[in-house]
Amino acid sequence: MKPVTILAIAVLVFAVLAAVIVYSNLISRSQPQAFSTTSAGGLPLPNWAITFGDPKAPITLIELFDLHCPYCAMAHEQLDPLYRELLKTGKLRLVFLDLIVHPEAAPAHQYLHCAYNQLGNKTYDLITQLYKIFLSDGAQKQLEILQGYRCTNTPSKSDFDSAVKELLGALVQKGVAIRQLGTPTFIIIKNGTINVVVGADVARVISLISQ
């Protein structure tokens, strides 16, 4: 075989290997790791879940939410002062898990995860602001604000759905069945006991996390 031919083959092999490595890196960046198990009740949560507060807090509240859900917005407005108090005193771990009831809300949720990657704990204030804007000015204004945090590495609608499915499956295994799922849904873990509140029953949520 001629030296030129050997060199050409070597260059081709190198190019193919380089392309495979680049493609693998792109795939790993665009697909968030699926699940990691929390220490609170052993419930599975994705590592990209929007989380606030001390992981070792005595109360964990997982809120299934939709940014276009008016009941979520109204419930958050009422729960916000208590959330802030419990977060500040280290008594609450608050997890927001995306339950997309309104399909058009998916881009807003993806941008919210971009914001979380950039803002960290300050994202809580953003969520509060976004709900107020949704109630006063609508979904489009909400989306315009979120687009300022645009990024490429964000969970997909499929990731959101899979996370909720995994969580519900784990609840069933623990003997906690949710007959009718909706937004908001609050899953409260305290003293080893799991309670679920479906809907904007704010009084019930307050009683469970204030006791």
Automatic annotation (TrEMBL):
<protein>
    <submittedName>
        <fullName>Protein-disulfide isomerase-like protein</fullName>
    </submittedName>
</protein>
<dbReference type="InterPro" id="IPR051470">
    <property type="entry name" value="Thiol:disulfide_interchange"/>
</dbReference>
<keyword id="KW-0413">Isomerase</keyword>
<dbReference type="Pfam" id="PF13462">
    <property type="entry name" value="Thioredoxin_4"/>
</dbReference>
<dbReference type="GO" id="GO:0016853">
    <property type="term" value="F:isomerase activity"/>
</dbReference>
<comment type="similarity">
    <text>Belongs to the glutaredoxin family.</text>
</comment>
<feature type="domain" description="Thioredoxin">
    <location>
        <begin position="25"/>
        <end position="169"/>
    </location>
</feature>
<dbReference type="InterPro" id="IPR013766">
    <property type="entry name" value="Thioredoxin_domain"/>
</dbReference>
<dbReference type="InterPro" id="IPR012336">
    <property type="entry name" value="Thioredoxin-like_fold"/>
</dbReference>
<dbReference type="InterPro" id="IPR036249">
    <property type="entry name" value="Thioredoxin-like_sf"/>
</dbReference>
